[in-house]
Write a structure and sequence with these properties.
By secondary structure, the chain is mainly α. It contains 5 helices and no strands. The longest helix is centred in the C-terminal third of the chain and has 29 residues. The protein starts with 6 loop residues before the first helix and ends in a 16-residue tail after the last helix.
Length: 168
C-alpha cells in the first residue's frame, strides 16, 4: 500500500521549500549583525539613566527615572520590532538565545555594580559619568558578537542535512 515516490520530484520540492527557509535565516542574521542604531540608542538611554541616578535624586525621582527608562527601552523595542520583516516562532529561540540574554544581564549588571564600587570615593558627578561610560561601553562591546553568536545557531537547527546520496 505504499505509493511510488519520484526521487527527482521530491528533491525539487525539498529545494523549493528550503529556499524561503534560507531567506528567513538570512534575515535573522542580517538583523543580528546589521544596524547598530538600536544598540547605540539603548546604550545612550542606559548612559543617561546611570549618570542621572548617580546624582542621588529623591526616592520619587528614582522611581520616575526607572519608569522613564523602562518606557524608553520598551518604545525602542517596539520600534526595532516594527522594522523587522519577520517574527520567529518561539521554537526557533535556542539555548544560545537564552544564554546570550542571561550573560548580557550578568556582564552589564556586574559592570554597573563593580564600576559603582570603584568610583564611590569620587564626587557624584564624575563618578556618575565614569560609571555610565564604562557600563554603556561594555554593553556596546558585548551586544554585537553575542547577537551574531546567538543567531548563528538558527541556520543549522531543524534542517535535515542532505545525505551523500542526495547528489545522485
Amino acid at each position: 500500500m505504499s505509493t511510488p515516490v519520484d526521487a527527482e520530484q521530491a528533491w525539487k520540492d525539498l529545494q523549493r521549500i528550503r529556499v524561503p527557509q534560507e531567506r528567513v535565516y538570512d534575515e535573522v542574521e542580517r538583523a543580528a549583525g546589521g544596524s547598530l542604531a538600536s544598540t547605540w540608542a539603548t546604550a545612550a538611554i542606559m548612559w543617561v539613566f546611570l549618570a542621572g541616578l548617580r546624582l542621588d535624586p529623591p526616592t520619587w525621582g528614582v522611581w520616575l527615572a526607572v519608569a522613564a527608562y523602562v518606557a524608553l527601552l520598551g518604545g525602542l523595542a517596539v520600534l526595532h520590532h516594527r522594522g523587522s520583516r519577520l517574527l520567529l516562532h518561539h521554537s526557533r529561540f535556542t539555548w544560545r538565545t537564552v544564554a546570550t540574554l542571561v550573560a548580557g544581564a550578568v556582564v552589564t549588571g556586574g559592570t554597573v555594580l563593580l564600576s559603582g564600587r570603584l568610583v564611590e570615593s569620587l564626587a557624584p558627578l564624575p563618578a556618575g559619568l565614569i560609571q555610565a561610560t564604562v557600563s554603556a561601553s561594555v554593553f556596546v562591546l558585548f551586544v554585537g558578537p553575542a547577537s551574531r553568536w546567538a543567531a548563528g545557531a538558527l541556520r543549522g537547527r531543524g534542517a535535515a542535512e542532505p545525505g551523500p546520496e542526495a547528489g545522485r
